[in-house]
């Protein structure tokens, strides 16, 4: 009763204060709010800020006033921004009040803070969410159950708070029970109740209108591949299945300066260049079409080459032939004929199709040149030709015998199955997901220190996507997300990567799709404000490896797919990234470390040409990328 009287008095005083000096704002539909987490433990000296969760989640919250429980200021200080700083061990109640200025309605929230002595806490480092039943879309009124696995197992506070980002669609209680309440999409995730406030991976949930609601599964775009500046044309979207309940799509142009597109799919050419037209379902399925390339030409002119990227094996053996791969931008360039050069034809020659023939030991530089008058040249690849030594003598397995037991001179599924058999033969074990747990400071117990170390500082790791050298604030990024089948390979150190926590949560479980940076609609490390472009290549080669490591995983040329299918994409973008961003030294170091731990290697780092020989004829887009006839 004492607490109730104190809260009532506090709310009366705050209401009077706000009424007397505040200027009314626009009315909002706030029904209440909460402080998150509702209970927290922090150590003496720590400062903590609560998250404020509106009910419903899209409501507006006015200014919030905070207060501590009577007599509890001995244990913590309330700061001007609403955060608290712990002073002495004890228990502190934090009260928050907000007022609707027009209706004078008051809303209250409360949280409990346990102040512990210094150095007594073991922080949560990561949270894995486990679904208790087979994943499915749900109807209104149905339930899904979630469990949260907290790491490390000896964390001081293991409780989590569950969040649904759209409570008009679904709510989730403190036990992880999700209840569908309305049609649409929401995301569910768990937040640590300790001071770290670490978030788990976010899970997309679609609540159907009813049992007869049929979702879009595939969208294909058709229309003109080129337009002249100033002209317009209609793009068309074909929806599958034909009986989908909602066939409306939203249109987008990846480069609105080159061409714009209206709500009805009418595209208008604005300036010379290239853009991708994409149609996205509006039924909550998050399905998008493959990017449809549109080239805008000058009146009566041609579209010139703007960029050429080549890739190929830079360490061939004497007597080998190496097929160099090329990507030409824009894809619709009028003239894609190239000439090739080798700076030292005594070491190797290269023909007009990019086929290099080695002649003697030594070094030469390989480059390609546009012939359309644009003057564009490719990147230069330094090729070091050496005589095959037969292995042994302390050389790496790759230099010697790793691939000697399998036939790499095949294509398609035959080559893929050969690599799968080789991987099973060479991989004597997997390191285990727990062995990748990242310690802090100079704690180097994680096996990542054997694969992802910074060569300039072995006590630090290179964070995936951003390439930053750090040894704290990291967790394990599933390059192939668990919810899409990545759990089949998450014990294999070739797949997970150490990643800064905030960057990991940014990606969620989205497909890799060029130009996208939104969880749920596709993700590209180069489209963020922290990712390095070259990590596109790393990500692609890891995804290709996963398909070798477990036959239950496969690739699709889509921007999204059902989580049940254990697929990742978008295949054509992954191939483009692989070809455009050649193997880095950090990948070679990682491959060597993984081999020391498990006995096997990522073949697409050692032999980049295998990608196009397996997936080059998947469709016309991949064939064009790989220059497959």
- Which value, in Å, is the CA radius of gyration? 28 Å
Summed up, the helix count is 10
Uncertain ranges: 1-27, 389-400
Q: Indicate the structural class.
A: alpha+beta
Q: Give the overall form.
A: globular
How much of the polypeptide forms β-strand, as a percent range? 25-35%
Number of strands: 43
Average pLDDT metric: 83
Write the layout of secondary structure elements.
Blueprint: H1 2-21, E1 32-36, E2 39-43, E3 47-48, E4 51-55, E5 64-68, E6 76-78, E7 84-86, E8 90-100, E9 105-116, E10 126-131, E11 138-139, E12 143-151, E13 160-164, E14 170-172, E15 177-180, E16 184-192, E17 203-208, E18 218-222, E19 226-228, E20 232-234, E21 236-240, E22 249-253, E23 259-261, E24 266-269, E25 273-281, E26 292-297, E27 307-311, E28 321-323, E29 325-329, E30 338-342, E31 348-350, E32 355-358, E33 362-370, E34 381-385, H2 412-426, H3 448-451, E35 453-454, E36 457-462, E37 469-470, E38 474-478, E39 496-500, H4 501-507, E40 517-518, E41 522-523, H5 535-549, E42 554-555, E43 567-568, H6 571-580, H7 585-598, H8 603-606, H9 610-615, H10 620-626
């Amino acid at each position: 009763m004492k607490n109730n009287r104190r809260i009532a008095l506090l709310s009366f005083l705050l209401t009077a204060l706000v009424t007397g000096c505040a200027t009314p704002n626009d009315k909002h539909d706030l029904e209440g709010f909460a402080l998150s987490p509702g209970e927290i433990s922090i150590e003496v000296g720590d400062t903590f800020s609560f998250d404020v969760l509106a009910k419903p989640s899209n409501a507006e919250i006015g200014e919030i006033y905070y207060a501590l429980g009577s007599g509890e200021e001995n244990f913590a200080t309330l700061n001007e921004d609403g955060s608290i700083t712990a002073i002495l061990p004890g228990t502190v109640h934090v009260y928050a009040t907000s007022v609707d200025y027009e209706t004078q309605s008051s809303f209250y929230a409360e949280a409990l803070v346990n102040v512990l002595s210094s150095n007594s806490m073991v922080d949560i480092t990561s949270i894995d969410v486990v679904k208790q039943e087979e994943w499915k879309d749900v109807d209104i009124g149905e339930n899904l159950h979630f469990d949260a696995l907290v790491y490390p197992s000896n964390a001081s506070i293991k409780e989590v708070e569950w969040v649904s980002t759209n409570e008009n669609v679904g709510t989730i209680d403190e036990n992880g029970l999700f209840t569908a309440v309305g049609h649409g999409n929401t995301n569910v995730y768990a937040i640590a109740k300790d001071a770290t406030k670490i978030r788990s991976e976010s899970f997309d949930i679609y609540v159907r209108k009813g049992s007869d609601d049929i979702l879009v599964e595939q969208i294909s775009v058709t229309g003109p591949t080129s337009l002249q500046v100033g002209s317009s044309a209609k793009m068309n979207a074909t929806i599958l299945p034909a009986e989908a309940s909602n066939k409306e799509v939203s249109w987008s142009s990846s480069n609105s300066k080159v061409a714009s597109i209206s709500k009805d799919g009418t595209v208008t050419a604005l300036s010379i260049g290239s853009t991708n037209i994409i149609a996205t379902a509006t039924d909550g399925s998050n399905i998008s079409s493959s990017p449809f390339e549109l080239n805008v030409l000058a009146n009566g002119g041609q579209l010139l080459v703007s960029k050429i990227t080549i890739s190929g094996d830079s360490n061939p053996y004497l007597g080998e032939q190496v097929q160099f791969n090329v990507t030409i931008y824009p894809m619709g360039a009028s003239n894609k004929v190239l000439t090739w050069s080798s700076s030292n034809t005594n070491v190797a020659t290269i023909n007009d199709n990019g086929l290099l023939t080695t002649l003697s030991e030594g070094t030469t530089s390989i480059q390609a040149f546009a012939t359309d008058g644009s003057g564009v040249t490719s990147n230069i690849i330094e090729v070091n030709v050496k005589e095959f030594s037969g292995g042994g003598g302390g050389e790496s397995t790759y230099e010697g015998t790793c691939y000697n037991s399998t036939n790499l001179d095949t294509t398609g599924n035959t080559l893929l199955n050969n690599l799968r058999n080789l991987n099973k033969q060479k991989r004597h074990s997997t390191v285990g997901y727990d062995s990748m747990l990242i310690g802090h400071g100079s704690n180097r117990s994680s096996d990542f220190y054997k694969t992802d170390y910074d060569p300039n500082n072995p006590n630090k790791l290179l964070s995936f996507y951003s390439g930053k050298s750090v040894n704290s604030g990291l967790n394990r990024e599933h390059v192939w997300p668990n919810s899409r089948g990545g759990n089949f390979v998450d014990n294999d150190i070739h797949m997970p990567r150490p990643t800064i926590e905030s960057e990991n949560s940014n990606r969620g479980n989205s497909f890799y799709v060029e130009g996208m940076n939104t969880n749920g609609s596709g993700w590209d490390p180069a489209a963020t404000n922290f990712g390095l472009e070259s990590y596109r290549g790393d990500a692609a080669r890891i995804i290709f490896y996963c398909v070798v490591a477990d036959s239950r995983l496969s690739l699709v040329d889509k921007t999204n797919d059902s989580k049940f299918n254990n697929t990742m994409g978008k295949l054509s973008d992954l191939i483009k990234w692989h070809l455009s961003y050649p193997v880095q030294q950090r990948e070679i170091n990682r491959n060597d470390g993984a081999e020391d731990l498990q006995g096997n290697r990522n073949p697409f780092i050692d032999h980049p040409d295998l990608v196009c020989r397996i997936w080059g004829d998947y469709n016309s887009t991949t064939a064009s990328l790989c220059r497959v006839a």
